[in-house]
């Protein structure tokens, strides 16, 4: 047996020596191969979102708007250019969501402050002096009450703070006025008791200053007491007719579906990194370091397997190019069943006139026979079928011997050379009929299937010792070593099933073959299901 030099084989992936660019198809290949995992994760996300929508009651939102005004001494004075900056809205928003407002809401609504804080939301439009109070609740009435109560509570708290500030200022003015009035009374006593005109004039002048100071203090106190401490007004109260559902609940379903799909894609990449499968010819070549004998594609339509049969015939041509009878070829795989490819190769090799012996020691002989019979019926040209004679033109003379053959010959009931018996009880001995059926002018053995001008026989490895071309349907190498043992007596073809064969198993199989002294002819890449 000699191995021919292998030529260049086309691949469906980038060369191992030249790293290819990662395309969008490469990124989508892993999720597509793990489509079940991605679909399961997306379904779980959709079910989770659906459960949330059905089990969690819909939250209703009510809105109330408060216009905040600055506290001024004269409400009728025109506002300046910086009137919108007279109030720090960040401070007002902090007061609106502060502890005092939340605690009053909790006392009024009878809830926990933490729940009240989560249901209350205060928005501040950019460049405006407006606070929008949003309150969520399971009922429209509670949402309306919560929003209105939050707005009014904020105004009450802010008014109380302004009133306290005004009271402190008035108290300070009262203290100052009291002190100045005491000084005024003391000076008046001194002025009445002084006899010296010069000293009297000095006391009078000092008393005039004290009176002027007391007048200013009283005027300032009057202005402070007249300040309007109203912090603002509720310009829009919450109503039931204006209550809206919080969020679009159908969007939760879309978010759950997309989120589950995203998690599934991440899990698919994680699983692919831990469980690497052979996805292309480049992966098979990287894992084995062997030449490609051919790819056997799965047909686009299950009812039309001609593309698969043609690919198998190309693989048979590659195998026949590399071996010479007597040849022993073992089809070995890591964990997959190569029976379909073995039967297809046997049919393709026998169709060219070879006598192929298919050996199997794992009890798959009947399966191989059925597959061979099925593949034989799909041969494009079957030489085993008798040719139909061409019609003879009218008026042409019949061939020689045709007239004699046209006369029907009467068969004799007696064997040739035998005399008829006159005994009535004599028995007639009939010749034994062979169970074999002649086909193409030769006798076919019961274990033999005629394919084209060749034949395919079946049996065990020992029964095929005297045949010129033996294909051994080896069991998976991960559980049985007979395929490697048979390959030591001949050659091996590594069968790789796309999207199923693990790269680690394939590397281990090639290492075992080389450690046993076997030089494989190459590898064949097949698709899932049938070869």
Low-confidence stretches at least 5 residues in length (pLDDT < 50)?
1-18, 303-307, 384-390, 399-418, 428-444
The order of strands across the largest sheet is 6-15-14-7-13-8-12-11
Mean pLDDT: 77
Put simply, the count of helices is: 15
Distance between the termini: 27 Å
The assigned structural class equals alpha/beta
What portion of residues is helical? 40-55%
Overall body shape = rod-shaped
- How are helices and strands ordered from N to C? HHEHHHEEHHEEHHEHEHEHHEEEEEHEHE
Please indicate the percent range of residues in DSSP E strands (runs of 2 or more): 5-15%
Indicate the radius of gyration in whole angstroms. 52 Å
Number of strands: 15
Instruction: Describe the main β-sheet briefly.
Output: 8 strands, mixed
Fold topology:
Layout lengths: L23 H10 L1 H21 L4 E9 L20 H8 L2 H11 L3 H7 E4 L6 E8 L2 H54 L3 H29 L6 E5 L7 E2 L3 H26 L6 H8 L3 E5 L9 H17 L4 E6 L6 H12 L4 E5 L5 H12 L25 H5 L31 E2 L2 E2 L4 E4 L2 E6 L9 E5 L8 H6 L3 E7 L5 H13 L6 E5 L5
Parallel strand pairs: 6-15, 7-13, 7-14, 8-12, 8-13, 14-15
Antiparallel strand pairs: 1-3, 1-4, 1-5, 2-3, 9-10, 11-12
Helix pairs in contact: 1-2, 2-8, 4-6, 6-7, 9-15, 10-11, 11-12
